[in-house]
Amino acid sequence: RKLGIALVGLGGYSTHQLAPALQETKNCYLAGIVTGTPAKAEAWKAKYKIPDKNIYNYQNFDQIVNNKDIDIVYVVLPNAMHAEFTIRAAKAKKHVICEKPMATSVEDAQRMLEACRQNKVQLAIGYRLHYDPFHQRVMDLGQNRIFGNVQSIRAHNAFDMGAGSSNSWRVDKERAGGGPLMDMGIYCVQAACYTMGKAPVAVTATFGEVTRPELFKEVEQSINWKMEFENGVIAECFSSYSDREDFLEGKAEKGWWRLGPAFGYEGKRGETSQGKMNYPNIFEQASQMDGQAESFRNNKPSIVPGEMGLRDVKILMAIYASARDGGKRVPISYT
Ligand code: NAD
Q1: Does the C-beta of 36 come closer than 6 Å to ligand 1?
Q2: Is the CB of 312 under 6 A from ligand 1?
Q3: CB-based burial of residue 316 (10 Å sphere; 0-12 exposed, 13-18 middle, 19+ buried)?
Q4: pLDDT per residue over 159-213, tens digit each?
Q5: Which atom of ligand 1 is nearest to the CA of 182?
Q6: Among 60, 94, 130, 208, which is least packed, fewest CB within 10 Å?
Q7: Domain ranges (residues) in the chain
Q8: Closest CA to ligand 1's atom 8
């Protein structure tokens, strides 16, 4: 049986990526929606043939507990709202997929995990790149030491935001938790961790210059940081809302690799010291949700579990702590 997914928050990502992906998934389908905007409810209902009984708003959302059509709640709201809706979904006994970053504080991420444990539901993070063949190859090259030990990593992910109002929550500290690090930089954090197959022991970071103070009043415009792994390997990373960069590189004893574009939805390209990577560009969100639905259905741990989301929030918070403290080395404890 296909599992029913309810999308919570019908913004850009739900509209342009997740809903279309759910037309192609084999293990799950778009069964319901949760929205604060009645006009969106009408439009989605018509477009995707969603029955009235599977349409909720943020107030009556908890009644989803009684809805047998919904197995999975997918939280696609501004970052600071992930905790509330993940916890409410867990209490309604639904498995949860939560978008990245999992939360805007370590405490929230811990509360989310606890709620899912208590209610015996699974929690997975929307880390789509774990389902992408280019990134799976990087995991293989790094973790299985195909070219020997990894010696260094570089990962940059930046886009030029412009002054568009549709991104207003992304520059609001309260709702986003931070700037490009939370939104784009998290892909670099993830990539360094899955290249190494482990988490960094410490980080150092510095905020970049603010050239657009009208937009970046509350969150950073850009940030440089380094992640230090226990064997001394350093990942050099950068993220920004006012540049265009998108690559992931690794250097090992006997070879190297480079993805670029690396982190966007389409057009990925990759190369190693042995030549071009020949992988198809897949519909990542469809593979991701199919993979997550299958793990929920079989009661197997997800390859992108809530625990990984918590680990990453700890790393993000350590990066901010270092940047605020003038680049001081901040060790990270995961226990
Ligand atoms: P968006 O601004 O396009 O959509 C946000 C949605 O939340 C809108 O429908 C909005 O109406 C709703 N909302 C409810 N309460 C709100 C409030 N108080 N303030 C603002 N909006 C409110 O954002 P998006 O790009 O769809 O991002 C949503 C989440 O998905 C974020 O956590 C983001 O990090 C994540 N995301 C992930 C990927 C990915 O590739 N995995 C890509 C894009 C976004």
Answers
A1: yes
A2: no
A3: buried
A4: 998 766 557 999 999 999 999 999 999 999 999 999 999 999 999 999 999 999 9
A5: 34
A6: 60
A7: 3-128, 129-281+306-331
A8: 11
Topology adopted by domain 3-128 = Rossmann fold (3.40.50)
Does 187 participate in catalysis according to the annotation?
yes
What distance in angstroms lies between residue 224's CA and the mean position of ligand 1's atoms? 25
Is residue 13 among the annotated active site residues? no
Question: With a 6 A CB cut-off, is 126 part of the ligand 1 pocket?
Answer: yes
pTM beyond 0.90: yes
**Hey, do 3-128 and 129-281+306-331 end up sharing a CATH topology, with the first three levels equal?**
no
- Pairing state of beta strands 72-75 and 3-8? parallel
Residue in 169, 190, 288 to alter for ligand 1 test, most ligand atoms within 8 A of Cβ: 169
CA of 169 to the centre of ligand 1 (A): 8
Could you give the CA distance from residue 57 to residue 71 in angstroms, rounded to a whole number?
17
State the fold for domain 129-281+306-331.
Dihydrodipicolinate Reductase; domain 2 (3.30.360)
CB 72 within 8 A of CB 110: no
Q: What is the DSSP string of 237-296?
A: EEEESEEEEEEEEEEETTEEEEESS-SSSS---EEETTEE---PPP-HHHHHHHHHHHHH
ipTM: 0.99
Burial 34-72 (b: 16+ CB within 10 A, else e): bbeeeebbeebeeebebeeebbbebeebeebeebebbbb
Say if CB 138 and CB 257 are below 8 A apart: yes
Selecting among 100, 194, 241, 268, the annotated active-site residue is 100
pLDDT at 232 over 60: yes
Residue nearest to atom 31 of ligand 1 (CA): 78
The tally of CA atoms less than 13 A away on the side-chain side of residue 320 is 20
DSSP string computed for 57-76: -TTTGGGGGG-TT--EEEE-
